[in-house]
Amino acid sequence: MAKGLDCGTSFYITATEDRIKKQRNAFLTVDGEVTQVKRMLKRQGIPYVEKNKKIHIVGQHAFNYAQIFSTAELKRPMKSGLLNPQEKDALPVLNAIIGELLGDAVGKETCVYCIPSKPIDAQREVSYHEDVLKTIIEQYGYNVKVIEEAVAIGYEGLVDNQLTGVAISMGAGMCNIAVMYQGMTALSFSVARGGDWIDECVSQDTGVSKAKVTNIKESSKNLNLNKSKINDIYEEGTEESNVLIAIRSYYGALVNYLLTNLRVQFEGIDNVPNFPDPVPIVIGGGTALVTGFLDVFNEQFDQSEFPIPVSEIVLIEDAHTAVARGCLSEAQLAEEDEEDDS
Amino acid sequence: MLKLSKNKMEISSLFIYVSLVLWQIGIISYILLNKFYGKNPKKIIQRDQPTAVEVDLPKKKSIGHVDVAMNKKILMDKPNVTNLSTDEVIKGKVKTQKDKLKQMRGYNG
Fold first, then answer.
1. ipTM rounded to 2 decimals
2. pTM confidence score
C-alpha cells in the first residue's frame, strides 16, 4: 500500500488510502535512574524511547508535559525545516516516530516523503537531512522516493489548473514555495521562517513563554485573525488578548516576507516562464490553519508588485494534511507505474 | 784625549753604516711589497642585462566546480521503543488528486 509522509518540523503526518496519522515531532528527556523512570512511565502508559541510557517521552505526551511543567524543556528533532543541529538525540526519536507512523512494509510498498527546497536565508544544505530520512524509511523496508514539499502542495492544489501556478507550504519551521508551469517547477525555494518564528517573536514581545504561545495559537477558540475580531479584543488587555494581537501582527510580517522574497527570486531567474493567463496561489500547511489567515494574506498581497498575474488565492482543503496527501498521490502513481512495467 | 776622539769617530761611522743598511732594507721591502701586494684597480665587468621576453605560457582552462550527490551510507540502529502510539488517527477514505494527476501525466506524455 502506497504511503505519503510529510516530515514537518512540528508534525510528522502519514497518509494512506484509508487513514491519516499524525505524530507531534517533539520529545522530552526524563532525568533520573533509568530503570525507575521506565517503570514509572510504563505504569502510567506513557510512550518512551530508550537510547544510550536515556529515556525520551515522545509526541503529544511530551508537549503536554512541557505545558504543565514550565521547567521541562521540550526538545525538537527538527528546526527550521531540517534536522536540528543542536539536538544530539534527534535521530533515534525520528526513527521511532517514523517507525510508529509507517510500520514495516508489507511486500513491495512505496513511500514518498518530502524535503524542503534549499533555503535562501539560511546557510544550510538539504542533502544530509534527505539522506537521513531516506535511510530511516528504508530500514522499514520501503521503496523510497522524495519530492519537494511545495510540489506536494501543487499536486493537491494546482491539478485543476494544469499544475500551473504558485504553491506555498506554510510550515512550522519554514515556508516552501514552488512556481509551477505545466507540472514542471520553474522556481522553488524556502525561507527559514514559519509558525515557530511567529511563536518566538510573540513570546519575546509579550513575555509569555513560547510553549504557551504555541498552545494559544493551536488551541485558542478566540484565535481569529479577521481584523474586526482582533479589534473586538483590543480593549480586553488580558495576557491572551495581547498574544492574539501580536500573533496577527507577525502573521502579516511573515506573509510580507514571503511575498517580497518570491518577487525578488522571480526577478532574479533566467528563462522566466510566461504566464499569459492569471494563475492561482494555493496554500497549505499547519501555519495556514488559523482562522482569518487568508484575510491577512490578502492584506499583504499587492498585485501591482507581484510578478505573475494572480487569479485567486486559495487555502487547500484540510491544509494540515495537504503535503502528506500530495506525497500519497505520487506514491500511488509510482506503484501503478511499477505494476505496469512488471 | 786623542783616544777619546778616535772612539767618537768610530761610533759615528758605525752609526752611519747601520743607518745606510737600514735604509736599504726599507727601500727594498717597499719595492717588493709594491710589486706583489700593490693596489688592484677594480675591474668593471660588463654583463649583458637580461631583458624580458614574452612567451606563451600554457593557459589553464577555467573549470567550474563539480557538484556531487552526497548519498552517504548513514549507519543507524533502531531505538528501543515502548508503548509508542500515534497521537492522532483519522480513519476514512483519504481524498487525493491522484486520478487527475494520472490523467494529466498521460495527456502530457
1. 0.81
2. 0.79
